[in-house]
Amino acid sequence: MVTIKDVARVAGVSTATVSRVVHDAGKVGDACRAKVKTVIDELGYRPNTNARALVSKKSNTVGVVMPHMSPAFFGRLTSGAEKAARAQKFRLLVSNSMGLSQEEGEAIASFEEHACTAMVLHSKESDEKSLCELVAKHPALILINRFVADIAERCVWLDSLAGARQITEFLLEKGHRKFAIASSDAPEEDAVARVTGARQILAEAGIELDESDVVRTATDLDGGADAGRALLKRGIDFTALICHNDMQAVGAMNVLQDAGIRVPEDVSVVGFDNLYVSRACRPRLTTMTYPIEEMAAYAIELAIKLADGSEAPPSRTHLFLPRIEERDSVADLN
Questions:
Q1: What's the pLDDT tens digit per position in 124-140?
Q2: Element (H, E) at 98
Q3: Which of 290, 219, 276 is nearest to 251 (CA)?
Q4: Structural domain includes residue 332
Q5: pTM for the predicted model, two decimal places
Q6: CB–CB of 81/92 below 8 Å?
Q7: How far is Cα of residue 255 from the mean position of the Cα atoms in its chain?
Q8: Alpha-carbon separation of residue 63 from 54, 60, 82, 250, 282 (angstroms)
Q9: Which of 43, 42, 44, 11 is nearest to 28 (CA)?
């Protein structure tokens, strides 16, 4: 492995001069700088960022902990985080917690070992007390896609309740009066908020949503198919189906169409997230845009500012709102 001493020896300069060239700091003559850069390129020298981090207790890395890696939603989150980190000349460290609270803590401890203080955590499993303790211990840790009232200023989150209310109002405006909901079978805040938001708007319109009108399954394609089969089994007595996310919506839509139920002529279907699949399926899916890439970029920038002390701890919450992306899966019954 090529070291800074090797570069200094070949270039005939001190290691301090090489360091100044590498970090573009201090006074170095143009000719000397050019010579050192040439030697660096010829030898293939790469600075040991971990060693520098251990000495300075800081690093130009930002850590992101996610519960899963494969779903497209988390791919978009990572993409937004990566772009924001690079724009700040930071590198991204990504850890997969597999949805386990213990793994979240171990990932954060690993970031600390690499002198990484700017961190973004996506946690749906840890309880609020544990998250408050983590945030208190790590002054540059930001929670994404989770709202905890006691640490609201460190949460970058989406108002799922408002999103559910908006998409339900949209369906009512299209003349729909008979509804069904495919929700998540996991006890997560977003799932509760979306069912609650839909119920609120329907109640305001004088429409009662019975508990039997809500089916709860996994939120992937298979879960959506399960939801579709459950709805077929109990009988189709609704014209609008609100799904927890796009993958679930596409799975349900496929089962309905295979059974001869036309979308949107017989049943209108809406999703949530605005993933690529919502544009690739047929009919193209009407959905709520989840600005997760924007949220991830915002969270990264906030974590970096807190880590380097360029911004005082915020005293405000960081709320994002979804918006409707109207396509072809909703019929106008008016």
A1: 888 999 999 999 999 99
A2: none
A3: 219
A4: no
A5: 0.80
A6: yes
A7: 28
A8: 16, 10, 10, 33, 38
A9: 11
- What distance in Å separates the CA atoms of residue 49 and residue 53, rounded to the nearest whole number? 6
205-229: per-residue pLDDT in tens? 999 999 899 999 999 999 999 999 9
> Where residue 111 sits, what CATH number does that domain have?
3.40.50.2300
Pick from 220, 282, 274, 290: which is nearest to 251 by CA? 220
**For residues 301 and 305, what is the distance between their CA atoms, to the nearest angstrom?**
6
H/E segment holding residue 325: strand 323-325
The structural domain count of the chain equals: 3
- 269 and 168 in a common domain: yes
Structural domain of 224? 160-290
Residue at token pair 């985080």: 81
Helix (H, G, I), strand (E, B) or coil at 268: strand
Residues 286, 310 within the same domain: no
Distance CA 262, CA 70 (A): 31
In contact, 231 and 214? CB cutoff 8 Å: no
